[in-house]
Amino acid sequence: MSGPTAPETGAKAPLAPPADAVAPVRHPDAPAPGEPIGSHYENCFGCGGNQPHGLHLSARADEGVAVTAEFTVRPEHQGAPGLAHGGLLASALDETFGALSWLFRAITVTGRLETDYLLPVPVGTVLHLSARCEAVHGRKYYSVAEGRLDGPDGPVALRARALFIEVKVDHFTANGREEEINAAMSDPDTVKATRAFEVNP
Ligand SMILES: CCCCCCCC/C=C\CCCCCCCC(=O)SCCNC(=O)CCNC(=O)[C@H](O)C(C)(C)COP(=O)(O)OP(=O)(O)OC[C@H]1O[C@@H](n2cnc3c(N)ncnc32)[C@H](O)[C@@H]1OP(=O)(O)O
């Protein structure tokens, strides 16, 4: 029997951008600062409206290559009595990082995500999240995020770093379950979201 193996060390380990990484570029068609970034898929656990237990996270573009987002911690999100589950909070950060895709207009998926939990997050909290892309190296996007309690300037409860990797639409079509892929392809909103990325020069 084999147990879990530790993440690879060496080149894959650091979340700090390599020395020859470049600054991210805000795409000319990126949503304007303050503009909402709609859900990319209605069944997404992070942002979809069709997931009763989902986070229903709503994100907006910020200045530069950055986003802000909020989500309200509900009783179905508990880990300990009255407190949010840690993995779920990582999901909220993951989704916020994912929303950065709309700023540079490239589909990116999580390669690596590191979270520091600084304060417990009670049920009922509106968590104020923000994420910013710091650097790009080929298909790799290096970003930082935080989550605050009691407002956008409230105490920092979460800090995170992530490495997202650029993929093409076939990442989803080749790997997803056929049933959901077919349904998504016949949903005009998903098709619209997909097209937005396909026209990316
Ligand atoms: C039907 C239509 C559907 C339409 C959809 C519409 C639009 C959608 C719009 C927006 C979606 C946004 C969704 C956001 C949701 C929130 C984010 C998530 O939760 S995403 C889910 C969790 N993540 C995964 O499931 C990834 C699983 N992993 C993989 O699939 C592969 O490992 C992948 C694609 C990440 C990389 O595989 P490779 O074969 O393409 O590329 P390689 O060569 O391995 O990596 C490229 C570079 O990245 C580094 N790298 C890869 N993984 C790394 C890691 N874990 N740590 C460090 N570096 C890593 C490698 O060392 C390499 O670096 P060097 O170019 O050589 O410098």
UniProtKB/TrEMBL annotation:
Compartments reported by the entry: Cell projection, Ruffle membrane; Cytoplasm; Membrane
Membrane-topology annotation of the record: Peripheral membrane protein
The EC number of this protein is: 3.1.2.2
Q: What class of enzyme is it?
A: hydrolase
Q: Which residues form the Thioesterase domain?
A: 82-138
Q: Which Pfam families match?
A: 4HBT
Q: Does the keyword Membrane apply?
A: yes
Record-stated family: Belongs to the THEM4/THEM5 thioesterase family.
What is the protein name stated in its UniProt record? Answer: Acyl-coenzyme A thioesterase THEM4
Q: What is the lineage of its organism?
A: Bacteria, Bacillati, Actinomycetota, Actinomycetes, Kitasatosporales
